[in-house]
């Protein structure tokens, strides 16, 4: 019975990790699965709790610093950006009108939902824009012919 409880706890923590994406709860899930293994081998509840605590602590102390190092922005470490970070600064073609509410652009052959970086600007189909920032699956865009120092302030 203890084995099943530890497995359920581990599964709940793993599912919760999916929603938080912090890569923190998964370490406790690993501890719960290790405790389930101890329970399956017949260890008493006290030993199971110690296994849970020890494995959880070890994964937090050893794996978390490595994970955090790899999660830092490529731009802040001077490495070549990839993924969504690589889109920032890219040129895009407006396919459907882009304004503060939304729109559609084509970036490197891919379709992206977009919004105007400055809520007062509207971009029409066929216009070239530059990706200033990516929030989730939406590219915030601005006119293509400006330098980064001339960006307007957002939120206005």
TrEMBL record:
Top-rank lineage group of the source organism: Bacteria
Cellular compartment(s): Membrane
Primary localisation category: membrane
Domain NfeD-like C-terminal: 84-142
InterPro entries: Membrane_assoc_protease, NA-bd_OB-fold, NfeD-like_C
Transmembrane segments: 44-63
Keywords: Hydrolase, Membrane, Protease, Transmembrane, Transmembrane helix
GO cellular component terms attached to this protein's record: plasma membrane
Pfam families the record matches: NfeD (PF01957)
GO molecular function, one term: peptidase activity
Keyword Cell inner membrane: no
GO BP: proteolysis
Membrane topology of the entry: Multi-pass membrane protein
PANTHER family: INNER MEMBRANE PROTEIN YBBJ (PTHR33507)
Name this polypeptide is given: Membrane protein implicated in regulation of membrane protease activity
């Amino acid at each position: 019975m203890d084995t099943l409880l530890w497995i359920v706890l581990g599964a709940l923590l793993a599912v919760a990790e999916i929603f938080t994406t912090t890569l923190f709860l998964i370490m406790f899930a690993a501890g719960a699965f290790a405790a389930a293994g101890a329970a399956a081998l017949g260890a008493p509840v006290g030993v199971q709790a110690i296994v849970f605590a020890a494995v959880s602590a070890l994964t937090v102390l050893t794996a978390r610093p490595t994970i955090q190092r790899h999660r830092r922005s490529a731009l802040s470490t001077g490495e070549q950006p990839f993924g969504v970070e690589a889109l920032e600064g890219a040129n895009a073609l407006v396919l459907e009108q882009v304004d503060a509410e939304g729109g559609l652009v084509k970036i490197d052959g891919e379709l992206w939902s977009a919004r105007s970086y400055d809520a007062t600007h509207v971009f029409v189909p066929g216009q070239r824009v530059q990706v200033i920032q990516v929030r989730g699956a939406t590219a915030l865009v601005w006119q293509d012919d400006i330098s980064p120092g001339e960006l307007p302030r957002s939120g206005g």
